Amino acid sequence: MSTRPVVSAEPREVIGKKVSILRRQGILPAVVYGGDTDSQNIQLDAREFDVLRRTTTKNTLVDLKIGKAKATPVLLQGIHEHPVRRNPMHVDFQVVSMTEAITIDVPVNYMGDSTAADKLGGTLLHLRESVSISALATELPQAIDLDITPLDSFESVLHVSDLIVPEGVVILTDAEEPLARVQPPRVEEEPVFGEGEGEELEEGAELPEGEEGAEGEEGAEGEEDAG
Question: 170 lies in a domain?
Fold first, then answer.
């Protein structure tokens, strides 16, 4: 007997902009696709889905029961949220085969501590947020772990080949694809002045010997010319 979460749904006839009426009634529009059948519009109880959402994530395998039909294993493929309120507006389910490997993207889970980031003042850069994998539906991970502990210098780089891959999972993304590195802290350069630039006399300081006299002589010559 399956221990997967069960999602109850009903066929949906309302489509287009009219689905806003369903949402006001506490009904969440959804679609299921994949397998040997055409895509089908369905609807769920919004509150029941909210409870399910708290315990599952994208790519979670659940049993979808539409009306009185037999439950079908599906992936919670996508949740479209309201841009401001962040509540679900639409849900996508994908029918999967339990005996054939499927290809999906899963997030990279950056774990551990980096010396270059924590002690040398650098900034940890995530160069990819997800990788493509192939696995049976029953062995799909929620994420693939990457230990960033080896990032102990600003020259260190972690690649797809450094991922901690669970048994039964095949990574399809190029093994040489970089995933993480640490950017060194930005150092502000001090301005460089040319010879004599930026030098000012302090208040009360005397002019070098000869300069004051030269100014005095120029003033005297100006008075003679005026006379």
Answer: yes
Q: Is 126 a member of any domain?
A: yes
Buried b (16+ CB within 10 A) or exposed e, 153-173: eeeeebbbebbebeeebebeb
What is the model's pTM? 0.69
Could you give the CA distance from residue 49 to residue 8 in angstroms, rounded to a whole number? 9
- Tens digit of pLDDT for each residue in 1-58? 578 889 999 999 999 989 999 999 999 999 999 877 789 999 999 999 999 888 887 7
Output DSSP code: residue 18: G
- 225 has a pLDDT exceeding 70: no
Same domain assignment for residues 39 and 119: no
The pLDDT score that the predictor gives to residue 58 is: 74
Q: What is the CATH number of the domain that holds 130?
A: 2.170.120.20
* Whether 126 and 157 share a structural domain: yes
In a domain, 118, yes or no: yes
Q: Residues with Cβ < 8 Å from 33, sequence gap 6 or more?
A: 39, 40, 92, 93, 94, 95
13 and 47, same domain (yes or no): yes
- Three-state DSSP class for residue 101: coil
> Are the CB atoms for 97 and 35 separated by under 8 Å?
yes
Tokens of 160: 């797809």
Structural domain containing residue 176? 102-183
pLDDT of residue 60: 83
CA distances from 28 to 31, 34, 209 (A): 10, 20, 90
Tell me, yes or no, whether 122 and 142 share the same domain: yes
Q: How confident is the model at residue 201 (pLDDT cuts 50, 70, 90)?
A: very low
